[in-house]
Request: fold
Amino acid sequence: MNSSTNPNLYITLQQMIGRMVVVHTAGKSQRGVLRALLPDYMVIEDAQMPIFIRLNELVGVVLEGESKTSCR
Reply:
């Protein structure tokens, strides 16, 4: 895990692997299935295309259809 990554965020994201999420960054939102979580980035899949998002760019992550958001 990257030293700048919040350990609680990382643990929460690990529990979301395989589920549909909406990922919010400062620039935009992406929707897809969380496929992988690596030390510096996460991989979500939308229409069988991987999308790589750096963890330090996250503003928030929400499970599709739920209102609770996980932020750093």
User: Anything to note?
Assistant: The chain is about 10% helix and 50% strand.
